[in-house]
Amino acid sequence: MSRKLLLEKEHVPGIRSYEVYRREGGYASVEKALKMAPADIVEEVKKSGLRGRGGAGFPTGMKWSFLAKPEGVPRYLVCNADESEPGTFKDRYLMEFIPHLLIEGMIVASFALGSNVSYIYIRGEYAWITDILEQAISEARQNGFLGSNILGTGFNCEMYVQRGAGAYICGEETALIESLEGKRGNPRIKPPFPAVKGLWDCPTVVNNVETLAAVVPIINEGGEAYSKIGVGKSTGTKLISACGNINKPGIFEIDMTISVEEFIYSDEYCGGIPNGKKLKACIPGGSSVPILPANLLLTTAKGEKRMMNYESLADGSFASGSMMGSGGFIVLDEDQCVVRNTLTLARFYHHESCGQCSPCREGTGWMERILKKIEYGKGELKDIDLLWDIQRKIEGNTICPLGDAAAWPIAAAIRHFRDEFEWHVLNPEECLTRNYGLAHYADPIHVPVMA
Amino acid sequence: MIQFSPEKLDKVNEIMSRYPAGRHKSALIPVLHLAQQEFGGWLDTPVMDYVATLLKIEPIEVYEVASFYSMYNLKPVGIYLFEVCQTGPCMVNGSDAIIDYIKKKLNIAVGETTADNLFTLKTVECLGACGYAPMMQLGNNYREHLTPEKVDAIIEECRAKAN
After folding, report:
1. What ipTM is given for this predicted complex?
2. Residue A164 with chain B: CB contacts under 8 Å
3. pTM of the predicted model, to two decimals?
4. CA A257 from chain center: how many Å?
5. Looking at the predicted structure, is the pLDDT value of residue A446 above 80?
6. Which of A184, A300, B78, B160 could cysteine-pair with A315, CB 3.0–4.6 Å?
């Protein structure tokens, strides 16, 4: 059983309430941090090696240290709770069941960054969680952890929850800021980065829910102790939301030292695949990251066991690897159709494109239409090449990473499952009645290694 | 006449107080949620104009936001809006069959409302409940691990509430 830092108390009855949370040691990190110099808190977070848990994996301490501090200009902390990446539902769990952990982490981060008004931007569909968070904020306020002169230190901090209204793009930090300003969620051109010009043109840090929650154990135990959990640059623990064809879908906190195989088959985690089916493919880090066939998922091209951490999941780059991403782990069994799965993702990105950049606005719709043709037995072989060509022309050619996020799943599906796409084209009637099946996707592969 | 109740106006003022002076436009998205809830489940043009007046912004600033975000309904919907997720992880767990079942059961197509104005069926993209698929949003809550039996029960529950 790996160590839990965030979900350690998840099963304590009443942990959602302030009384129980506090009795279990909650808000100790605020008491500790408010006696520290803000710069020292940033230093602890740097030492911890914590990487942004929203998907990009950028070192949090470094992001904090980039925050501009011009005289007389307010600075803002914004929590990105716009969790919308298909396969990802970990932030929801954290906010729904242990809301005070997020509030606690945000108070520490607000103090470290000098934010006197901090916002939680939550996806609009999580309406009931908005109420839970507002309740938690009001409890924290009543107990002197928010408001003016917190714990007699002279530090003032207010916190508000802002509901979005259904737009995946608002998980992109500059789109989120636009939305928080009451506008359409169109991402901004960077630079300037939010650290210099963010919310209402003021220096702003935007961090994911899990990232801010992780600040609590980092302050309680020290950055160095946190950095010793995990392996290499994958420090601490990571929440994985697992779904698809597994026996135990849900949220798991892992310390990044376990293998992908153990994660899928161990009873402690996903508990294997239902009905004795075989593993065909997996999208290990949310819908945007490359899908991998079973063989490359469990073993890297170098023949090593693939582990559940940032480096190992990315081993082989996009040629034979994937990404940790947001930790949205989607498992597909032998009965699943990769073409259909890719079609639903293409439809998703088409729906969610903000429409600002033509490669993304036009390209995502075009890809969806071609995939639909192939899925319904009306495709041609040249469509597969056309798909490849379109995704290449989207990637890197848009203001924000949604273009890349839309391109990568399609590229990876063609890269690893091209024969399944071809089978659909060559068997237009059969593909309507059955799926391609497991084929060779779980067979051991031999990759020549350069001397 | 479109007008929030005094309680709702207090709520609007409370929302506006969350932002620095002069930044009240930030209240637009939360106030549109409030307006949709208060004025029949969708945002008719006069409703959006009223919100513009309240927030002292131009109507176009409201229209462009209302038309961008998928949670705002720009056409009338039934009293109960079934928003069924159809993205990858839900599809893998049988959302297509659930959508077909609801269509048959209510005798409507996706995007349509039943003749008694009780139900509207919409398909939506990922709602962040992938581990509890298939699922739908109903009002402010999620209904998860859907089966035909569960759908039947939800429909009955709504009908009972409406009576």
Report:
1. 0.97
2. 29, 69
3. 0.96
4. 19
5. no
6. A300
